[in-house]
Design brief:
- By secondary structure, the chain is of the alpha/beta class.
- The protein folds into 2 domains: 144 residues, Rossmann fold (3-Layer(aba) Sandwich), CATH 3.40.50; 130 residues, HAD superfamily/HAD-like (Rossmann fold).
- α6 crosses α7.
- The chain has 12 helices and 16 strands.
C-alpha cells in the first residue's frame, strides 16, 4: 500500500520511475476525456509517452464503440492510436468466444459495437436494437416472444434499449445450463458531464438478468482475470514493466494490482482522494486492495515532469 503523490517526485526520481515501464495501459473515460472533450494536458502526456518509446494500450469497459470507432475518437481528440492499441469489451467478448471455438448463436443485450466485433470473427449474433412491449404488463401468452434456435451464449453489456422483453428472452435462453452467460463488465454507473443526473451502467443490466436467471455470469472486463490474461498473454505485457492508469479504483486500480502492475490513480473521475485515504486506513482487505501506488490530480500534471527528462 502506498498512495504517493507522483507530482512531488524530483527529476531524478521521476526519470527512474519512467524508466521502469515499457508498457502503459490507460483507461479512457474520465482519464483521457469526458464524453467528447479531452481532459486538459492528457493528449500531450500520451504523445510524450509515445516519444519515449512506451507502448500504449487503451483499455476500456465502455462497450458502445468498436475498436475502429475508438481509434477515430482517439485521433479526433488528439491521442495517437491504432486498432491494435484498443482493448474494448466487444473485442474481449469476441476473443473469449473465438478461443473456445464457439460455433453457435449469441443473443446480445448490448450495443451494435459488440455485434460488429463478433461479426469480425464470424460469430452469428442477434438482439441488438429496440425490442419492447406495448401496453400493460402482459399475461405470459401475450408476450409473443419469438425464440431463436441454437443459441449458445447470452452476452450482456450496456444497452440503451434494455426492456422487459430483452430480459425475458435472455433469461429464457439461460434456462439451458449449457448456454454461456457473459457480461462485459459490472460497472454500476456511467459518469457524465452533467452531474445533476445519474446514468446506470452495464452492471445494472447484468444484475437484472442475473437476478431473474438465477445464474452468475462470466465477467470479462476490468478488473477480471480475462482482461489481465489478454494483456499478458496476447499482448505480452510484462507486469513488472507496466504502468496502469485509471480513475476508478474498483476496476482500473484493482486490475492493475491483481496483475502486478504499478498503478496510478487520476482524480478526474469516479474516486476522490478522500475515498482512497479512507480505504488506506481501513481494516477491510477489499478496500485496501483499491488503494493505488501513486496518484495525480489529472494526467496532464505529468507534462512538466516529462518535459524535464
Amino acid at each position: 500500500m502506498a498512495l504517493i503523490p507522483l507530482k512531488t517526485a524530483n527529476k531524478i526520481k521521476f526519470k527512474a520511475f519512467m524508466e521502469c515501464f515499457d508498457h502503459i495501459v490507460t483507461d479512457c473515460d474520465c482519464v483521457l476525456w469526458l464524453e467528447n472533450n479531452p481532459i486538459p494536458g492528457s493528449s500531450d502526456v500520451i504523445k510524450k509517452f509515445k516519444e519515449m518509446g512506451k507502448k500504449i494500450y487503451y483499455l476500456t469497459n465502455n462497450s458502445t464503440k468498436t475498436r475502429e470507432e475508438y481509434v477515430m475518437k482517439c485521433i479526433s481528440l488528439g491521442f495517437p492510436a491504432r486498432k491494435d492499441d484498443i482493448i474494448s469489451p466487444g473485442f474481449l467478448v469476441a476473443n473469449y468466444l473465438k478461443q473456445m471455438n464457439f460455433n453457435k448463436k449469441v443473443y446480445i443485450v448490448g450495443s451494435e459495437a459488440i455485434a460488429k466485433e463478433l461479426d469480425e470473427v464470424g460469430i452469428k449474433n442477434f438482439g441488438v436494437g429496440p425490442d419492447r412491449m406495448f401496453g400493460a404488463l402482459p399475461k405470459p401468452d401475450d408476450l409473443k416472444v419469438t425464440l431463436e434456435s441454437n443459441v449458445g451464449a447470452v452476452v450482456v453489456g450496456y444497452d440503451v434499449h434494455i426492456s422487459l422483453i430483452k430480459i425475458a428472452k435472455a433469461c429464457t435462453y439461460l434456462k439451458d445450463p449449457n448456454c454461456l452467460f457473459i457480461a462485459t463488465n459490472t460497472d454500476r454507473r456511467k459518469l457524465i458531464a452533467d452531474q445533476r443526473y445519474v446514468l446506470p451502467g452495464a452492471g445494472s443490466m447484468v444484475a437484472a438478468i442475473e437476478t431473474t436467471a438465477m445464474r452468475k455470469p462470466v465477467i470479462l472486463g476490468k478488473p477480471e482475470t480475462f482482461t489481465q490474461k489478454t494483456l499478458t498473454e496476447k499482448y505480452k505485457v510484462i507486469p513488472s514493466k507496466t504502468l496502469m492508469i485509471g480513475d476508478k479504483c474498483s476496476t482500473d486500480i484493482l486490475l492493475g494490482k491483481r496483475a502486478g502492475f504499478t498503478t496510478l490513480l487520476v482524480l478526474t473521475g469516479h474516486d476522490t482522494l478522500k475515498d482512497v485515504q479512507e480505504w488506506k486506513s481501513s481494516s477491510d482487505a477489499t478496500l485496501q486492495s483499491y488503494v493505488p501506488h501513486y496518484y495525480l490530480d489529472k494526467l496532464g500534471d505529468l507534462l512538466p515532469l516529462l518535459n524535464e527528462i
